[in-house]
Amino acid sequence: MSQLPNCPQCQSEFTYEDGSNYVCPECAHEWPQQAAAEEADTARVVRDANGNVLQDGDSVTVIKDLKVKGSSLVVKVGTKVKNIRLVDGDHDIDCKIDGIGAMGLKSEFVKKA
């Protein structure tokens, strides 16, 4: 049996096909089958300040002095960060910086090393 996607509005698992649409019997939401296929194909792409695509495990270099919120510490220009992890949200990168600890960075302030 084929696995149908959950409803994008209420996350119900009881969706069914109706012609070229999916329909949710719980909230009556309808959406095209093509949209679900395109959504699965498009993965989020994170790029650095130079436009290079970043991936989990890459090493990056900080291109601007960054103040750490809640402390007087500063991440200096040229700081190399190894083994980054890409996440969803305001800050694209989770990492651990020597001397500072775990923190989130925005991809616009790093370049691929």
Describe this structure in words.
The longest helix has 9 residues, at 33-41. This protein is mainly β. The protein has a three-stranded antiparallel beta sheet with strand order 1-2-3. Helices cover 8% and strands 33% of the residues. Strand 7 (66-67) and strand 8 (74-75) form a beta hairpin. The mean pLDDT is 88. The chain starts with 15 loop residues before the first strand and ends with a strand. The protein is elongated, with a radius of gyration of 20 Å. The chain contains one helix and 13 strands, in the order βββαββββββββββ. It comes from Vogesella amnigena. Belongs to the YjdM family. Residues 3-32 form the Protein YjdM N-terminal domain. This is Zinc ribbon domain-containing protein YjdM. Residues 46-113 form the Protein YjdM C-terminal domain.
Q: How many beta-strand runs?
A: 13
What class, by secondary structure content?
A: mainly beta
Question: Residue-averaged pLDDT, rounded?
Answer: 88
Indicate the radius of gyration in whole angstroms: 20 Å
| Fraction of residues in helix | under 10%
Give the termini distance in whole angstroms: 46 Å
